[in-house]
Amino acid sequence: MLRRNEVAAGIKDYILRHHLKPGDLLPTEAELCEAVGASRSSVREAVKTLSALDIVEVRHGHGTYVGRMSLAALVESLAFRGLLSSEDDHLVLGEVVDVRQNIEQGFAPQVAQGLDTDQLARLRTLAAGMAEAAERGDDYLELDKQFHLLLMEPLGNDLIQQLTGAFWEVQSIVTPTLGSEHQGALTLTASLHMAIVEAAEARDAAALRTAVAAHYDPIRELIASVRRPSTA
Amino acid sequence: MLRRNEVAAGIKDYILRHHLKPGDLLPTEAELCEAVGASRSSVREAVKTLSALDIVEVRHGHGTYVGRMSLAALVESLAFRGLLSSEDDHLVLGEVVDVRQNIEQGFAPQVAQGLDTDQLARLRTLAAGMAEAAERGDDYLELDKQFHLLLMEPLGNDLIQQLTGAFWEVQSIVTPTLGSEHQGALTLTASLHMAIVEAAEARDAAALRTAVAAHYDPIRELIASVRRPSTA
DNA sequence: CCCCATTTGTTCGTATGTATG
DNA sequence: TCATACATACGAACAAATGGG
Predict the structure, then answer these.
(1) How long is the CA B36 to C1' D11 vector, in angstroms?
(2) What is the pLDDT of residues B173-204, one digit of tens each?
(3) Who wins on pLDDT, B37 or B200?
(4) How far apart are CA B189 and CA B131, in angstroms?
(5) Dihedral angle of Cα A144, A148, A149, A155, to the nearest 10 degrees
(6) Under a CB-based contact definition with an 8 Å cutoff, are residues B91 and A69 in contact?
(7) Rg of chain B's alpha carbons, rounded to an integer?
(8) pLDDT category of residue B232 using cuts at 50, 70 and 90
(9) Among A39, A88, A155, A157, which has the highest number of CB atoms less than 10 A from its own CB?
(10) Chain B residue closest to A102 (CA)?
(11) Residue B19 is nearest to which of A87, A99, A157, comparing CB atoms?
(12) Residue B121 and residue B144: Cα distance in Å, rounded?
């Protein structure tokens, strides 16, 4: 009885055959049991698997719906891997930083050309808000996330938006294992975001690339300092 | 009783608290029930969720182990999203191609400098094998995948290796919905891979960037032709 | 080879929590 | 308040796979 993968595949087939779109309602568990020929428990476990992948979405007392297939699964898996490796040398965290930097640098030309005046103004507002928060000694996680999401907005590529958000979340989950952040690093990082804004306002792709690279220097330094406590 | 996320979090906590590494054996389902205070059904569903994310790995009749945390979940989620959107305009497939190209172009300098003679020789062998297969009219999926994985090898970044493999798999799953591939496209793509090899052998980062970009032209053309059948 | 213990896989029945009308 | 429909949770039983004596 290899119901395990069969049932999940059967449900995915059902979605494809009926041309269901994200948000559409799926049959009840009982009807799914009949459709794929399995018991409620097996269907439940299959639904649980698909739910973890955000292929379906379950709302208690309401029903099961086709999911929006977000990258929440990627976040959870990568974040946990990062937490595990944080006990050693924070290898995963460094790799995530590399990938984030490469994405933002690679699309610098399209970003520098594509940002409209409204998006540029919002970027400046976010960077200014980060500087103000740093002055008060507060962190600015949500501002930082919005900044990087907004930066990729002109690409019109939803996958890149989601990857940007996903890798940002992984980094924000794993970074605290490095230790406390100093206010000096907060202020510095805020100013580096403003430098990105100014390069974007100048439509200077090369300057944008270097500003993005410089923006990741503090986190790289922090990772390196933890790997060799002698320099700390 | 919102055991749902509690139990999964409890199991993840157990792994972190006991400093378990990928491949280590977890307690039996019965012991996990006692450890987190839930019924076997609930524990099983939580394990199923973690299994979908490759955080744990279950072997029938043997036990439950800490997983490798691969990006299989990302592949399954993205591939299904691509299959759903394939009924419309293949939006997701185009986005995946954009991301793949950006990654390979962005790391072109490190790749051009970092490839050793053995890796270059293997790249040439793979590209030659693709050309031979195209001559016979055969496809060369596995050769193509190995090619792109090998290209990223000198970076020494495991996350990039896995992302490369994951996006490659998504593309290979979704692409067949575009229609049959012509032998002409196969031969052309094979020669474009050889052009990448030659740019890498010359240690020419700029040439490598353009060769990588050109390599994605056929698939972009195929997507565009399906979106407007009038030009086909 | 068979037998047996261990462990996960599948199914069913029942009771409870939740949202809609 | 009540009724209905649904997902959630638990416990028990049996099936299937693995490994060792």
Answers:
(1) 17
(2) 999 998 877 778 899 999 999 999 999 999 99
(3) B200
(4) 9
(5) 170
(6) no
(7) 22
(8) very low
(9) A157
(10) B106
(11) A87
(12) 15
Cα B215 from chain centroid (whole Å): 18
For residue A102 the two structure tokens come to: 């490469």
3-class secondary structure per residue, B148-177: HHHHHHHHCCHHHHHHHHHHHHHHHHHHHH
Closest listed residue to residue A112, CA positions, set A215, A214, A198, A213? A198
- Of residues A81, A95, A159, nearest to B99 (C-beta): A159
Question: Is the confidence at residue A39, as pLDDT, over 90?
Answer: no
pLDDT of B183 reads 76
Chain B 72-91, residues with CB within 8 Å of chain A CB atoms = 73-74, 76-78, 80-81, 83-84, 87, 91
Q: Would you call A49 and B53 a contact, using CB atoms and an 8 Å cutoff? A: no
Nearest to B24 by CA among B81, B73, B63, B76: B63
User: Which pLDDT score is estimated for A207?
Assistant: 98
A176 in reach of chain B (CB within 8 A):
no
Phi-psi region of A19 (alpha: psi -120 to 50; beta: other; left: phi over 0): left
The reply to whether residue A157 touches residue B103, judged by beta carbons under 8 angstroms, is no
Contact across the interface for B77 and A83, Cβ inside 8 Å: no
| Strand C, CB < 7 A, residues 52-91 of B | 58-64
Contacts A–B by Cβ distance under 8 A = 122
Determine the pLDDT at residue A206. Answer: 97
**CATH code given to domain A72-227:** 1.20.120.530
* pLDDT per position as a tens digit, A212-226: 999 999 999 999 988
Any A CB within 8 A of B41 CB: yes
Give the residue extent of every domain in chain A.
2-66, 72-227
pLDDT band at B170 (very low <50, low <70, confident <90, very high): very high
List all residues 6 or more positions away from A145 whose beta carbon is below 8 Å from its beta carbon: A165, A168, A169, A172
Q: Please, what is the angle between helix B158-174 and helix B91-106, to 10°?
A: 150
Beta strand ranges found along chain B (DSSP E): 56-59, 63-66
The hierarchical CATH code for the domain A2-66 is 1.10.10.10
